[in-house]
Structures are given as structure tokens and as C-alpha cells.
Design brief:
This protein is mostly helical. Helices cover about 75% and strands about 0% of the residues. Helix 11 packs parallel to helix 13.
Length: about 325
């Protein structure tokens, strides 16, 4: 597929007018637009404020990011400066980031698409002026950071914003109906539907990628795996733990957040090392192991960590199942 006729001149203009201060600012801003950061926020909301909001945010952003990678693979538009071969010096990112990004396609921007979905959902659900100002600022600044750093065209950002906002509007408009339909399924049916859906999206990504397992299709497995872990864990947590995220003081909330985050990161690290010893990164076994690794991480975040911090007295059980 031929590269799309996007405006490289604008990206070149921004690259020619960078300053060290502004570059440092946008490097910091762009870090707030990755899937990992969204999940950090969602986990904090889950353990300290609202489990339902955290679950819905997680599902929204995981599906959004998976679909973003599928769209990128389908459109196959290279990033700015790739055709010219000047990306190593034109991109204002670290060499490791540049090497990773150069192997990925550009359209639509994942940062723009993910942030517009995530922060606009927060805007819609949290009726607080400061939160809404921060949400709008985050969407705009994260979007601007991508062409400024040279890693996306402005058109990538605009398309990402459109898709992200559209997903949020659908989620808000039909969220309750979707939730009601979902809860009518049995627990085994929910698991089967999630696994089948995630693997179907991954297979689609592989086919669009020329039947190559390596590269961007792997990211679809990461998002799908964490989503599967959430689906596995949520009913178990409600039945066997059902902690109240608003219980205890601020110090306890911080401790249970740190415990949850630490357990997730440790599990990802341990399983990553273990699976890396038995499977090649380009193999089917490694891809399925990665799906399992992120499934375990999601399960730990939603069920295992709450079970532990409730047992040690850092949270109380809820009096209802609506939190």
C-alpha cells in the first residue's frame, strides 16, 4: 500500500523549531498517553475510589488500543521520515524508543486514540471542574506532542482523536445496555466470549500483517490478555472479596495501590523471564505465553491483590456489590 499523502512539511517545521525546554515538556506529556499509564490510573481508581469506573475504563482503553494496532496494520502507513531514512535524527525520542517505533506503522496515532477515549470517558463520568480541565488538556497536549516529537503526522492525531472520541460516545450511550447484556451471560460464557474475541482480533492482526507473528500483532495479545484477566477476576472479587475502595484512610489506599502495582509488575517480570527461556519471540508458543502472562497480570490486579490487602486489614468489605 502506498504511503498516505499526509503533511510532512508540518512535521519538518516543528522539528526545525524545537527547543530543549519544549522537547523535555512534550516528552513528559507524551508519557501520559500510553496504555501502561492508563492502566496505572485505572488500578488506582480501582483500589481507592470506584471499582466499576475502573473496570469500564480498563475495558474501554484495552479494546481501543487493540483496535488501534489492527487499524495501523490494515492501513500500513509508515511514520514520518521513514521513507527519507532520516528518522534517527529527526525524532526527538530515545534511541531505544526510536528503534521500536520505526518498526510500527503510524496511522492512527495510538497515543491520540487512547488518550481521547480514556480522558474523555473520565470527563463524562467525573463531574469535577479540575478533573475535566486536566482531561481536556491531556487530550490536546498528548496529541500535539506526537508530531512535535516527529513520530506522527498531524493527520494521524486527528484520526486518532475521531476514533477515540467515537468509542467513548458509544460506551456512554450504550454502556448500560452492553453491561446488562454482558451480565446475562454465565461466568463460563463470559470467559469463552472474551478468549474467543481476543484471539480472533489477534488472528486478524496476524493476517493483516502478512501472516507474520512478530511485530504489532503481539500488542493485541497484551491488551487482550489483560482484558481476559479482568473478566476472569471481576466476578470472583465481587463474590469472595468485595472490598470497599473508599474504606480506610489515605495511607491505606496508597499502600494497597503500591501492593497491587508491585504484584502486577513482579508477575509480569517473573513470567516474562520464565517464558523467554522456553520460547522464541517469533514463535506461536511465545505469543500464547505472552497472552497468558498478561492474563495473569490482570487477574492479580483485580482479584489476588484485593484478596491480600483485605486480609491484612488495608480495606474493608463493601456492604453492597455496586461499588
Amino acid at each position: 500500500m502506498a504511503p498516505l499523502p499526509f503533511n510532512l512539511a508540518l512535521v519538518e517545521f516543528l522539528a526545525d523549531h524545537r527547543s530543549s525546554l519544549l522537547t523535555s515538556f512534550f516528552l513528559a506529556v507524551t508519557s501520559f498517553g500510553g496504555a501502561g499509564f492508563f492502566l496505572l490510573i485505572a488500578i488506582f481508581i480501582y483500589v481507592a475510589w470506584s471499582k466499576q469506573l475502573a473496570i469500564r475504563l480498563s475495558v474501554l482503553v484495552l479494546l481501543t488500543m487493540a483496535l488501534n494496532d489492527i487499524l495501523k496494520i490494515a492501513i500500513k502507513n509508515p511514520r514520518p521520515f521513514i521513507r527519507e531514512g532520516t528518522w534517527p535524527r529527526e525524532w526527538a525520542v530515545s534511541p531505544n524508543q526510536a528503534a521500536r517505533l520505526a518498526a510500527e506503522y503510524s496511522t492512527p496515532s495510538g497515543h491520540a486514540m487512547g488518550s481521547s477515549a480514556f480522558y474523555s470517558y473520565l470527563y463524562a463520568c467525573i463531574h469535577h471542574r479540575a478533573v475535566r480541565i486536566v482531561a481536556v488538556a491531556a487530550i490536546v497536549l498528548i496529541g500535539i506532542s506526537r508530531p512535535y516529537l516527529g513520530v506522527h503526522f498531524a493527520e494521524d492525531v486527528l484520526i486518532g482523536w475521531v476514533f477515540g472520541l467515537a468509542f467513548t460516545l458509544v460506551s456512554i450511550r450504550y454502556g448500560e445496555a452492553i453491561a446488562s447484556a454482558w451480565h446475562r451471560l454465565s461466568y463460563p460464557q463470559q470467559i469463552a466470549a472474551t478468549v474467543a474475541g481476543c484471539l480472533a482480533l489477534w488472528l486478524l492482526a496476524v493476517l493483516l500483517n502478512g501472516r507474520q507473528l512478530s511485530g504489532q500483532p503481539s500488542a493485541v495479545l497484551y491488551y487482550g490478555g489483560f482484558l481476559t484477566g479482568v473478566v476472569l477476576a471481576r466476578p470472583l472479587e465481587m463474590r469472595h472479596v468485595n472490598f470497599d475502595p473508599r474504606s480506610a484512610n489515605a495511607a491505606s489506599k496508597i499502600l494497597r495501590y503500591l501492593l497491587s502495582l508491585g504484584m502486577v509488575l513482579c508477575m509480569l517480570f517473573i513470567l516474562g523471564k520464565a517464558f523467554g527461556m522456553v520460547a522464541d519471540r517469533s514463535s506461536l508458543l511465545w505469543n500464547l505465553a505472552e497472552y497468558l502472562r498478561f492474563t495473569v497480570a490482570g487477574f492479580v490486579a483485580i482479584f489476588v491483590a484485593p484478596l491480600l490487602f483485605t486480609r491484612i486489614g488495608w480495606a474493608k468489605r463493601a456492604t453492597s456489590s455496586t461499588n
